[in-house]
Amino acid sequence: MISRRNYIVISIMFLILFFMFQFSVVMKEHLNDYTTNKYEAAINTGLTEDNVYTLITAENAEELPADRNYAVYIGDADKDATGQVVTWWCTYAKKALINISSLEEYSIPDTHLPEAVVVEGSTLNLETDGEKLLSMAEQGINLIFSGLPDSDDILNHQELWELFGIREIRRKSIQLIGMHLFEGFLLGGEAIYQPENKEEERRQDLNLEVPWFVTGEGTKTYLMGFLEDDSVKDEELPAIIWRNSVKQGKVFCVNGDYLCNISGIGLLQAMMAEIYSYEIYPVINAQNLVVANYPGFANENQEEMRKRYSQSQTSLFLEVIWPDLVSVLLRTNNQLTCMITPQFEYYDENEPDVEKIKYFLRLLQEEYGEAGLSAETMSRTTLVNKLQKDDKFWNEALPGYSFLSLYLTDETKIRQTLATEHLSKLRTIAMNYEKNTKPTVSYTHGGVTLQRGTSSGSEYTYSDDIYTKCMETALGYSNIVMDLTSVSYPESDDDSWERVSKNISANVCTYWKPFETFAMTTLSESDQKVRRFLALDYSSTREDNLIDLKIANFEKEAWFLLRTHDESIKEINGASYEKVEKNVYLINAFSSHVEIEMKKNELYYYEEKG
């Protein structure tokens, strides 16, 4: 029996709990306006395309400022895939670029040497270029070879053996069973690219047929091949990416096409960190998770939805997919940007449900997410017609909501989208993931930024892993763009949400874990960081243990990566910092002048960066 006193106490407690619960719900409804985009005011920046850092180019070093670091590309930087990658690397890292059509035309400067000369190895004139390149390395010029000459040509030119650090050419071509990426080169740590089961075999998409180069003393291997013959010693395994030392110069060899898409900017930046005692360079510091074409608010493709999911499309979006996405957010601390579409089809009787839109926006805001728009459709209607109909719908359903981001798969249609009334405040466009030489972040028409995907999220191959590591190394940036159109209109069992969800959860919660130090952002927050990154310029010098960093075109804050060789930060002024991994620090500059005092853990002999 419960005494009267205890009964009264328990009753009062229940009343208090009931009141608190009801009060919190009422207050949340009252204080949160789900029909406005809270990020509109939070991401204010005065930086536009007019403020962007413009790549400095010149015909020779004498035309450049004496304190400007620069690279040289031998070839056609506008047409060559490697040349385009080098151009964007210099743009992002704020270096100058000298482009020389052929090595024969390159005159070695007496002073102000380049940080690196990048050469397309397959285009070398072996009768004349070998000796000149060897002489350049001996004078202290760092060389980077994108691809190597044919193994027979190397075999017949002794100066190339010495230049590349090749001790032996075992075979002209051999089939690998996997590769080993060593720790300390790219951010994200060591990786073994060798399938251990049938599930892993789906991830293997690397080129495993390579020449078998055995490197000699004085070389350092960063990416190495595995052979089926496990009796071969480690030092004799095929080298894929390595570095050779030739007197004062460093020679980097890339045995493959790894510098032929935009992820090559990460390899180039990692090479710079291997040359000098320290390397400091600007990064974006943004990790985006974008779900495109989700959700829709009209019950479409009903027959397939009932057959596959036993429920409507809108129920699938809100009752099944949404909880799974929230689970990923809770495990990773990501922030979500949903690129929504009112409907996928425009020639049927199904119209979007306004109440479901408002309900979803409340769910999204409670998870600190943001809504953007998708320009994609499953109808044969034109983009202009779709946007016009959507525009009319949004003006009626959400007149106060400012859509700041857009998902688009066809870059040629950007101008059409910008003419839409409801996109008048558009600040950034997200695009799907493609491996090409196009810039990862840039400005497009009308001063809008373009943020390309760096991963699809649902598929993650070995080359995707290298791509991700390169993007994080060069830019501290990731843009996972997951297009769920195939879930709404599945063509096979692989498109079912059950399988897609399993892949997304496994990939996003695993392969981005090493990069949790970087900021988790919505697309609008990332846009602000991109604008600041594209605008800034900087210079750094070092005297003894003090690094002096000066930032131009600075707005409120800037982000840098500092890479060292077994040194750590003792004290920092004008900024704060976090450790990303061993010998890598994320610097948050809140002043245009930053001083970093370093302390040595062990003594290493590297060339000081002036």
Q: What would your notes on this structure say?
A:
Helix content is 31%, strand content 27%. With 610 residues, it is an alpha/beta fold.
In DSSP terms, counting alpha (H) and pi (I) runs of 4 or more, how many helices? Answer: 17
Distance between the termini: 84 Å
Shape by Cα distribution: globular
Task: Write out the strand line-up for the largest beta sheet, numbering strands in chain order.
Answer: 1-3-2-4-5-12-11-10-7-8
Strand composition percent: 25-35%
Radius of gyration (Å)? 27 Å
Instruction: Give the class from helix and strand content and strand pairing.
Output: alpha/beta
Task: Considering the chains and any ligands shown, give keywords for the structure.
610 residues, alpha/beta, ten-stranded mixed sheet, 29 strands, globular
Write the layout of secondary structure elements.
Elements: H1 4-31, H2 39-42, E1 57-58, E2 70-74, H3 81-93, E3 96-100, E4 116-120, H4 129-138, E5 143-146, H5 151-155, H6 158-164, E6 166-175, E7 178-181, E8 191-193, H7 198-201, E9 209-215, E10 219-226, E11 239-246, E12 249-254, H8 264-275, E13 278-283, E14 286-292, H9 302-309, H10 313-332, E15 336-340, H11 354-366, E16 370-374, H12 383-397, E17 405-407, H13 414-418, E18 428-433, E19 441-443, E20 449-453, H14 462-475, E21 477-483, H15 485-488, H16 497-511, E22 520-521, H17 523-535, E23 537-543, E24 546-552, E25 558-564, E26 567-573, E27 575-581, E28 584-589, E29 593-600
Parallel strand pairs: 1-3, 2-3, 2-4, 4-5, 5-12, 14-15, 14-21, 14-22, 15-16, 16-17, 17-18, 18-20
Antiparallel strand pairs: 6-9, 7-8, 7-10, 10-11, 11-12, 13-25, 19-20, 23-24, 24-29, 25-28, 26-29, 27-28
Helix pairs in contact: 3-8, 4-6, 8-14, 10-16
